[in-house]
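Protocol step 4 of 6: structure prediction from sequence.
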Amino acid sequence: MGMQQVHPSPTPVILIIGAADTGRAPIAVALLRRLAQERGHTWQIASAGVVGHDDDPLQPAARDALAVMGLSIDDHVARSLTDDLAHTAHLLIAVDSGIARVLRSRYPQATIYSLGELAGRSRDIPDPAGMQIGAWLHYSREMEQLLKAGFERMTTILSGNNVVEESPSLASPPPPPPPPPSERQEVCARATRLLDAIQAMPDVIDWPAARGRLQATLAELIPLATEPTDLTMLYVEALNRWLDRQTSTPSADRITRLRTAIERGQHPVGQSEVADLMRWPD
């Protein structure tokens, strides 16, 4: 991935590079700092961005996602990647492969990996800017898994040892990709991500607004019912009537029950499922 440079600092320096340095990159910094501390490493870990958003704070949804995960980086201020910063880093970690390509064109002698490359996976974490906190939590947890999977490789790189890359010709063929989710599955996934956010921060979420968004999302299932025996319309109406009766954020037990009901909506539903919903207590 490039030759290592000679660095003035004896302590390994890792720079995680994002686009604006207000979302994914600082989240990855907080996650990696915790991992390094847990494993007894004293690495210097910081972030920067390839586009100029200097002095901007962390995005609010990113801050809230970190809080849910027991982390904070409240003093973070975005900065642009400079030549001096790049040259002091022992390892540059790009949050996605597109940013990795930009870095390699700028700094061909630097040691550069994307998060997916470190983990040995063909995966880029999407930028959740503008999305709800549920998406930020989902992608933050995925970044944490990639960092854990790539931690041994990071340790090898920072120790000065060569990383043996697997030859594509000798590698095992990748498993076939999973089938794409159906439209119903995508709608239900969006609804359950919203439930994640409600359950994670019940005192922060505006329940009436969240309930309205959840009901609107569930209503998207109705036109997706194509079989005569599929009672999805009645099922969604029963769910939304139950939600109407919830004047405050539901308890954890009720959210769990609601999650199960939403997951059931990924497939056609029958009379027994509708009848069960209609018996739910207020």
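Step 5 (inspection) to follow. The first strand starts at residue 13 and ends at 18.
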